[in-house]
């Protein structure tokens, strides 16, 4: 946990968002990214690695676990799963192809688990009257799996009115470009009260687009680009307030 994501500060940040949502009432909008913000996708990645292991007959990979994934270095995940350096190097390229084929699919994203406290916090913001906007770089082809994960983990389900889910209509569109495009759709929903994202570049852009909103960075993982979170943006480890 970084110095910017200490428990007392985290509680203060989350409570401030709830107060702001209550003050705005039904016209306000709270924006949430999904991967590494509301959802931990490491269970998805572990299953993909185990299924890759089964497909190539590598028994050491059959017991792949979420903790083998720390960031987005697939070679490091192969090593943590038990492969020696030579085997990890040999498997890296075929595993990356397998990963690329399956990571962005409903078949696997339905395995995602909630970041601690996230379902309860999103429900609490909705209870304060805020409209919920899930804004994700996932393509439309992942909608069914995303809805299944929402349902299983207890998040408010999109209804097209008070809860909306904005996804890429073109998978190849970069996440930066997609998030910029999504800002117009978000603004059309109402005044933005708060935005949550794990990617420094994205949360910074949100803070600049909506300076009156509370922008919050999730200190989980990110793309690894050398972008610093703006000093005025608080970071939190998860959504627990205890």
List keywords for this structure.
242 residues; elongated; alpha/beta; Rossmann fold; 2 domains
- The CATH architecture of the largest domain would be 3-Layer(aba) Sandwich
Strand content: 5-15%
Order of strands across the main sheet = 5-4-1-6-7-8
Low-confidence stretches: none
3D shape: elongated
Mean pLDDT: 94
Q: How large is the count of helical segments?
A: 9
CATH homologous superfamily grouping of the largest domain: HAD superfamily/HAD-like
Helicity, in percent? Answer: 40-55%
CATH fold-level topology of the largest domain: Rossmann fold
Q: What's the count of strands?
A: 8
The first-level CATH class name of the largest domain: Alpha Beta
- Kindly give the count of domains: 2
The major beta sheet can be summarized as:
6 strands, parallel
Order of helices and strands: HEEHHHHEHEHEHEHEE
Radius of gyration: 18 Å
Straight-line N-to-C gap: 16 Å
Describe the fold and architecture.
This protein has 242 residues and is of the alpha/beta class. The protein has helices at residues 7-24, 42-56, 74-80, 85-102, 106-109, 118-127, 143-153, 175-187, 200-209; strands at 29-32, 39-40, 113-114, 131-139, 163-168, 192-197, 214-218, 235-236. It folds into 2 domains: 7-41 and 112-236, Rossmann fold (3-Layer(aba) Sandwich), CATH 3.40.50; 42-109. It contains 9 helices and 8 strands. The protein has a 6-stranded parallel sheet, with helices on both faces. Helix 7 links the parallel strand 4 (131-139) and strand 5. The protein is elongated and about 55 Å long.
